[in-house]
Amino acid sequence: MDQPVVVITGASSGIGEATARLLADRGTRVVLGARRAERLDAVAAATGAVARVTDVRRREDVAALVDLAVETHGRLDVIVNNAGVAHVEPLDSLDVDHWDEMIDVNLRGVLHGVAAALPVFRRQGAGHVVNVVSTSGLRIVPGQAVYAATKNAVRTLSEALRQEAGPGLRVTAVSPGMTVTELVAASGADPETVAQGQTRMDEIGIPAEAIARAIAFAIGEPAAVDVGEIVVRPTAQG
Ligand SMILES: NC(=O)c1ccc[n+]([C@@H]2O[C@H](COP(=O)([O-])OP(=O)(O)OC[C@H]3O[C@@H](n4cnc5c(N)ncnc54)[C@H](OP(=O)(O)O)[C@@H]3O)[C@@H](O)[C@H]2O)c1
Q1: For residue 20, which of 84, 1, 39, 2 has the smallest C-alpha distance?
Q2: Measured from the CA of 83, which atom of ligand 1 is nearest?
Q3: 154 in helix, strand or coil?
Q4: pLDDT exceeds cutoff 90 at 2
Q5: How far is 87 from 145, CA to CA, in rounded Å?
Q6: Across the chain, what does the average pLDDT equal?
Q7: Cβ 66 vs Cβ 7: under 8 Å
Q8: Which pLDDT belongs to residue 1?
Q9: 163: CB partners within 8 A, 6+ apart
Q10: Which of 11, 105, 186, 222 could form an SS bridge with 16, CB 3.0 to 4.6 Å?
């Protein structure tokens, strides 16, 4: 594929930012979305990307991001549904607002990406959906019930989409393990919980570039090669 056009959600930090930088370095035209305008603009400036403030909870925002890619570059080759939030807490917390947020961003946000990109891919006869899920959905541990549930819902819809896709459409689910990003800090949890999570992240976390390379690998394979699942975790992760 000559200079593919790739939309990345959640591109203002962490894995999304690392993916934008890596793909741009390799000549990919990236189109970036996230909510924090300043951070997003900084990544866009560094990567020569176009960007749009996007809240993936809003279907019209994600549709506008895909429109921006098509208007700017005339096509869309890949959407990386990466935006995500994580609240690690037992179900006994009954923090339904946090549950709703994880469902809205991690699951509904991905569905909004599919709804925006799929018609473009169908029109073109080709396209690639990359969904960032998590090892949290592979090894279920206490405290991550809702987070893991949203990620496994996306794993499920990725497989269904793959089966429905027919030739021409590729679907990849990438499962990062513990990766050094702003995910823990962004959760807005109490300082002690954030400090604990951050310590663990700093101890064993792998750099976001490791996940970016996995995403770039899936995208870079020939069109007839559909990389279904990639799991990338720290060697030290149990
Ligand atoms: N770090 C890990 O250990 C790990 C492990 C497994 C999976 N993951 C997954 O990797 C993905 C990226 O997270 P990260 O680790 O790179 O954390 P991060 O640095 O906090 O990045 C999360 C990104 O998502 C964006 N985002 C959050 N809510 C959004 C919304 N409503 N609309 C649009 N963008 C939104 C954030 O940007 P704004 O705040 O600017 O909107 C940010 O760019 C997530 O899906 C996460 O679940 C991470």
Answers
A1: 39
A2: 24
A3: helix
A4: no
A5: 10
A6: 97
A7: yes
A8: 52
A9: none
A10: 11
